[in-house]
Prior knowledge:
The complex is a heterodimer.
Chain A: H1 2-27, H2 41-68, H3 71-103, H4 111-132, H5 136-150, H6 153-163, H7 179-217
Helix pairs in contact in A: 1-7, 2-3, 2-5, 2-7, 3-4, 3-7, 4-5, 4-6
Chain B: H1 6-44, H2 49-57
Amino acid sequence: MRKLLDVGLPMVALTLLVVGGYWGLFVAPTEREMGEVYRIIYVHVPAAWVAMIAFTVTMIASVTYLFNGRWGADILAEASAEVGVFFSVLVLFTGSVWGKPTWGVYWTWDPRLTTAAIMTFSFAGYLALRHFVDVPEKRATWAAVTAVIIYVDIPLVWFSVKWWNTLHQVQSSPQTVSSEMVMPLRISAFAFLFAYLFFTRLRHQIGRQRLDIELGELPPAGMRGV
Amino acid sequence: MIVGGEKFMWTAYAATWGGMLLYLLSLLKRRRETKAEHELFIDTIGSQGLQEHDEGRS
């Protein structure tokens, strides 16, 4: 099973990335108003979805850790947060590159952009917090509480385009998008999802071995400081 | 229609694919280093495993 996942996940992700990329770049029709630049949606939107899934996994794993104290949940929370930060940086970058030709600026303090930036920096701060605390139990507990608190921003990112007057367009659906554009978006979304699973699996392996070393070298729990 | 958008489109794709490749290489490098450290740890201290730590907490 492990071998299957080690080989299968990257193969599926790579295949879907190639197919989705080719379809999005060369097969999908040009958009009437935005021209070629609209093709950025095939990387921007899946990266945004996957970043939010990653942070949701972090939040669920953090709550799980707070309830049962299992290290596996803490390691998963950290792994998913790191991968989520990677994808959310991609979202901010590709969004800015889209913003210049369509809005005339790379960045504006629009509610969607602002909440997305807060999401990225909050979870980057979560990862930084983990580096500052040496005692594994305290680090895991503090990080879990932090993850639950900063997760509040995720619904704000999602609903910001509906609740406030923003430059960013509202979420599209298969009913509002040309059918020729839906399929490459779906393929890219699955490609990014499999890439997320593969990256998180790798990061989880790293986290597990690091913690194993750390716990083995620590003095008994009652003798530890921060 | 916006003209000349191709360079922005290619920039976004290059950043995405290049970023994924660099992140993957970083993960593989870190995994290799951690694995070497972990093997050394197992050889010198002995294998306790996380399961034992988990069991000790519950």
